[in-house]
Design a protein that fits this description.
Blueprint (H helix, E strand, L loop, with lengths): L9 H14 L5 H8 L3 H6 L6 E4 L3 H7 L4 E8 L3 E7 L3 E5 L6 E5 L3 E5 L5 E9 L2 E9 L5 E11 L1 H10 L25 H9 L6 H9 L3 H8 L4 E4 L4 H11 L3 E7 L2 E7 L4 E4 L2 E6 L2 E6 L5 E7 L6 E7 L5 E7 L9 H8 L2
Antiparallel strand pairs: 1-7, 2-3, 2-9, 3-15, 4-5, 5-6, 6-12, 7-8, 8-9, 10-16, 11-12, 11-18, 13-14, 14-15, 16-17, 17-18
Length: 348
């Protein structure tokens, strides 16, 4: 989400936010930011010195330190989908050059972290019906949330305090400025024959991103271009059927959602599915998903070749053509995708 920053002082923005909270007591900070035409990070910046602490440092070190927090809740969202996974930061590996480091988190919390966009970090302590809610929250240069890590009953609060002190920024008065990302520019034409050949000869689903870069083509445009053998459109609300069938048949699956700084992944079986107005929800003990169906413009079945056979995904896109969420049948390297998943997708 790109935001337009109004000319304001921290004091005037804080006052505007207080007025908003009085008029809209149940609205979240993200809704307030959108209404006030500022970024979420700018709004959170008005609380520094009161209920939040500005952080700085090497974020790859911070993520490694998260292993000592114990059981937490990690929240990552796209524009239309929120994933909340509870568990530990278990196995963490950092790859890549200093400017483009990538982290892989494997375990109860699973993520693919892209550290280049990480710009602002906060330790936040806010009032809630259950007492003081403690969290670490991270944002990109546009002020949009990348990831939030909330302390739970079994979290190690001593480690929380230790990390809050260790990464505390020296200058707590640093101004939080939202700098929108420029719009990406893609190729006007590509060699469709070569592109199709590359798609058909993929050996791994991860080859897809390299192919998009090679041809400088937007993800959704690539899907539209490849033809119905490899991708076709389905009902935009098909996630309802996917989750309902997966829940009743106990079909293990994967759900991906994220942003430019982090992709969070759920792996396992979903149980409790609830439709609440325009929100499709998974409400399980250690996993919640909140999918805003109003943001979904199109849904696509997408096939990719791998050395383990065909891998099929269902991908949801918003009106701007950005990905909202992806659904896969659960699989591991070396193991083909389950036939039950393919049969479910075929009914869409």
């Amino acid at each position: 989400m790109q935001t337009t920053t109004l000319s304001h002082t921290r004091a005037s923005l804080k006052e505007a936010w207080n007025d908003f909270k009085v008029a809209n007591p149940k609205k979240r900070i993200r809704d307030a930011a959108a209404s006030l035409n500022v970024s979420e990070a700018e709004l959170l910046g008005t609380t520094v010195g009161k209920t939040s602490v500005l952080l700085e440092g090497d974020w790859t070190d911070f993520i490694q330190d998260c292993k000592r927090l114990g059981k937490v809740m990690s929240l990552t969202r796209s524009e239309g989908c929120v994933l909340e996974n509870q568990g530990t930061f278990q196995k963490i590996e950092i790859h890549g050059s200093p400017a483009f480091k990538v982290g892989t988190v494997i375990g109860p919390i699973e993520q693919r972290i892209f550290f280049a966009p990480w710009t602002y970090g906060f330790a936040v302590e806010q009032e809630s019906p259950r007492g003081i809610l403690k969290s670490f929250q991270f944002f990109d240069k546009a002020g949009d949330a990348i990831m939030k890590i909330y302390m739970k009953e079994k979290s190690n609060l001593e480690v929380y305090e230790e990390l809050k002190a260790k990464y505390r920024a020296e200058d707590q008065t640093r101004e939080i400025l939202a700098v929108p990302y420029p719009s990406a520019v893609y190729a006007e034409e590509i060699d469709k024959e070569a592109f199709t050949a590359d798609w058909e000869n993929m050996k791994d689903t991860h080859d897809f991103h390299g192919m998009l870069r090679k041809y400088n083509v937007h993800r959704l445009e690539a899907i539209k271009l490849i033809g119905e053998k490899w991708a076709y459109q389905v009902d935009r609300l098909c996630a309802r059927k996917i989750l309902a069938v997966a829940s009743t048949s106990k079909l293990p699956m994967m759900i991906f959602a994220g942003n430019r700084g982090n992709i969070q992944i759920f792996q396992g079986k979903v149980r409790t599915i609830r439709q609440m107005d325009n929100w499709l929800n998974v409400l399980d003990p250690d996993f919640n998903m909140h999918l805003n169906e109003d943001t979904i413009d199109t849904a696509w079945v997408v096939h990719k070749n791998t050395v383990d056979g065909l891998v099929t995904a269902v991908e949801l896109f918003d009106k701007e053509g950005e990905i909202v969420a992806q659904f896969f049948g659960l699989r591991k390297p070396g193991i083909p995708q389950r036939e039950e998943w393919k049969e479910l997708v075929a009914t869409l």
